[in-house]
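QA checklist item 7 of 12: single-chain prediction sanity check.
[x] sequence parsed
[x] length recorded as 428
[x] structure emitted
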Amino acid sequence: MLILFLPLFLIFLLLGMPVFFAMLAAPGFMLVSEGMDRDLPMLFRNIYNGMDSFPLMAIPFFMLAGELMNRGGITLSLVNFAQSFIGHVRGGLAHVNVMSSMLFAGMSGSAVADTSAIGSMMIPAMEKNGYSRKFAAAITAASSVIGPIIPPSGIMIIYAYTMEVSVAALFAAGVVPGLLVGLGLMGMISLMAKRYDFPVAAPKQTWKQRAKAGKSAALPLFTPVIILGGILFGIFTPTEASAIAVGYALFISIFILKTIKIHELPEILNRSAKGSAVVLLLVGAAIAFKTVVSLSHSAEQLAQWVLSFSENPLILLFLINILLFIVGMFLDAGPAIIILGPILAPIFINIGVDPIHFAIIMSVNLTVGLATPPMGLVLFVASSVSGVKVESIARAILPFLFVEVVVIFLITFFPALSMSVPQWLGLA
């Protein structure tokens, strides 16, 4: 049966085959074995067709904007701004770590960029202030998943393109869940601070000192206002917004902060191009993969199987959250969304779940998977930045993962948490 390409795909992944090749080899093998060789050209043609999209141009631009902000020292001004407000409480630097991630999320939309940028500064600073290095790495990894939840978000752009839903509506729906994750992590830090007697980072700042920190961070903090304001109010598209973000980051870094020199731009462009190429190849392969999903009628068969458990949307949403959480342990969020979205979304839309609500459930769940053992990508990035073994970070991150799982179920069973903002803006 053609549907067997799905387990074959998983076998290829377990054998260590790169995701891009596994997404082509599994359906290709099954097409040949079923005597459908004539469909092979369509499979490979769709790789290019999947990448040839104006909305997807936003992904390399946002990745470039994040790289410019990281290299341009913009991250440091955000950390200093966060510390001026909350650095004086017990566990202050841990709170600053989370708050910095929330601020950085509104600019880069990438968990990996967040872990690298925030971690390279905060992990050594937290260790010097008396925290264990594994705890510092764990809270950095846990808070970095806010990056793809608070808009702009590369993952949401991929979902919107794959499933043909509004990017602006998805961005608006991600605001409250992202804030809930950040506030939940800070609540857990407060509980742990009392039990483990976390240090106080610095004396309480005066409003004059906070105003000074705010002044230095004002231009970077204006970035999400430009991006989100323009998208949500229809001034420009997400792709145009991403290009504006790059121009704005260049202007600030080169002419205002003067932290990037012209001769450094080729290296920055090269790093961004490599990262973008990986993402776009995966998107192209996923569109080809999606074509075979359609040919195999696996979505319909899976829908019948899922509905055999129950037709109650609440029970099915509970079960699908568990499935997505497990998938997130082994598969990166982007590929997981473009593989599973076309299969799962129609099932839940047909039983009455709002398309934007399901998109947020799926996006947030798989984003949390980036910090989930054993294969969470940001765990490996945090390990690289901190020098701490992945296993140690995985143990230390468990309390924070508990918070993020609670948030997932809150936004699942209380749709207003994610739907209020897009409805208020007239986007849903």
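[x] summary fact logged: Residues 17 and 289 are 16 Å apart (CA to CA).
[ ] second reviewer sign-off
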